[in-house]
Amino acid sequence: MGIKYIARLPTVGVTCQDRVRRGVNGRNGGVMAQRGFAVAAFRDAGQWRCEPLPPAVLDDLAGLLSALRGQPPEGGPFVIANVDDEFFLIARQDGPRISLLLSDLTAAVEYPLAEQVLARLGEEPPEDDELDEVWPIGDLDLFTDLGFTEDEMERVLDDLDAYPDEMLETVVEGIGLAEAYAQATESARVRR
Q1: Is residue 1 part of a domain?
Q2: Domain for residue 3, yes or no?
């Protein structure tokens, strides 16, 4: 692991960057409700399981990583957070190392979770003139051991017509967790 990926891709449709231009973001003092879901995936007796996480982790990287560290370490547990269907974060543990993948670093101007991820990765938030592009960043190869290659992850992130939840469905299907993931996300949405 350790691939840092930053790709500048033009955005399509209404994105968090559009709301930034209208003044609803952290820089301009606006506050957005954090909607979405978070799930933890881990091995239990050799089988992968997915469980919903509390909504509080959607704006707190420390809480999300604490939930990750609380999973059994076998097989490299991971957490997935989809925030406001604007961006997603995947964090995966491999021993003491935690790999991060953020689907769009421009979300950092509006969302605390994305801002905290950038700080952990040692990256600066994008400038105002860079907000009309999508910039995935992080470890593209975090699921290579599960059969989902770096190239496949790049293709998922490059699909500008897909929403974050659709991208995540492609990823979890590619690693063989579609059914467990679907049940956990449904449960996470109901708990809100």
Answers
A1: no
A2: no
